[in-house]
């Protein structure tokens, strides 16, 4: 289930998703290079500036959610709403999640889903792309930036991501491994979390997040992690930060838990400010 080359072919079944500032976002189903339909939403900037070349006109955030999330979950919509103050936002549901097709490979072929969303974002007229991922999505944005260089994202933000695969050192991660590896766990994923998980194991094992990080340069990289993350302890972000060297920044957020649910408005606004300053 290792990733191949990126690509997309969006069959534009575009329709309004909700109203924002008098403009309707776009919703479509993209098609990845391996043929999976990906439910995707484009939110225009919440504020339109008159000055040409301002962030709201040329910058787009592509948001990659965590495992068992999807583009229409309230916490993902909240993140999109905050980042839309700084530029346009593309959200999408990874394969096997929500209304997207296929089955989750828990971070392997999901790089193709992100590649399709990034290509769509650029095709909508945004020359600057910042990928922002949470948990599993945080690992995907790292691997995508390392593997898909033409064109590469202009900046990368990875929140609450693991540094390495197969980590079982916390109770939440042991439960996640049970869900992914056991038939009864995959049933819980399908009917309890609306997540369809592929039954095959990785063969070969994909490039790990920490192996991907050195390949991201020269694109700016921001690693964000909470000191109360119950899934991945602090050796994970510190390992990623060490691998990034001088081209990466590491924010350790005091009192923060894990991923989207723990990302407060202040953090999201600081991420928006960082992206505006760093993405070209």
End-to-end separation? 34 Å
Strand order of the largest sheet: 1-2-3-5-4-6-7-8-9
The low-pLDDT segments are 1-22, 48-55
Number of separate helices: 10
Work out the helicity level.
25-40%
- Give the helix/strand class: alpha/beta
Kindly state the number of beta strands: 9
- Globally, the shape reads globular
Strand content: 15-25%
Would you kindly provide a written description of the structure presented here, covering whatever features stand out?
The protein has 280 residues and is α/β, with parallel strands linked by helices. Helices cover 34% and strands 19% of the residues. Strands 1-2-3-5-4-6-7-8-9 form a 9-stranded mixed sheet, sandwiched between helices. Helix 4 links the parallel strand 6 and strand 7. The two termini are 34 Å apart. Mean pLDDT is 89; it is low at 1-22 and 48-55.
């Amino acid at each position: 289930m290792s990733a191949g080359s990126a690509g997309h072919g969006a069959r534009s079944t575009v329709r309004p998703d909700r109203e924002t500032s008098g403009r309707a976002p776009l919703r479509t189903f993209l098609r990845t290079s391996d043929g999976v339909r990906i439910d995707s939403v484009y939110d225009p900037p919440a504020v339109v500036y008159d000055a040409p070349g301002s962030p709201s006109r040329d910058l787009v955030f592509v948001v990659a959610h965590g495992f068992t999330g999807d583009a229409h979950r309230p916490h993902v919509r909240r993140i999109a709403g905050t980042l839309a103050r700084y530029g346009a936002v593309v959200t999408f549901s990874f394969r096997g999640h929500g209304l997207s097709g296929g089955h989750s490979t828990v971070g392997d072929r999901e790089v193709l889903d992100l590649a399709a969303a990034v290509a769509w974002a650029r095709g909508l007229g945004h020359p600057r792309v910042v990928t922002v991922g949470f948990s599993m999505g945080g690992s995907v944005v790292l691997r995508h930036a390392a593997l898909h260089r033409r064109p590469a994202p202009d900046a990368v933000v990875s929140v609450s991501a693991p540094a390495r695969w197969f980590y079982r050192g916390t109770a939440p991660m042991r439960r996640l491994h049970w869900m992914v590896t056991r038939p009864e766990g995959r049933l819980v994923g399908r009917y309890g979390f609306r997540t369809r998980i592929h039954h095959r194991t990785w063969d070969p094992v994909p490039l790990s997040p920490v192996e991907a990080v050195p390949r991201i340069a020269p694109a700016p990289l921001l690693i964000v992690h909470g000191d109360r993350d119950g899934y991945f302890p602090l050796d994970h972000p510190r390992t990623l930060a060490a691998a990034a060297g001088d081209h990466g920044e590491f924010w350790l957020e005091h009192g923060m838990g894990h991923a989207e649910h723990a990302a407060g408005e202040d953090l999201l606004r600081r991420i928006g400010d960082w992206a505006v300053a760093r993405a070209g």
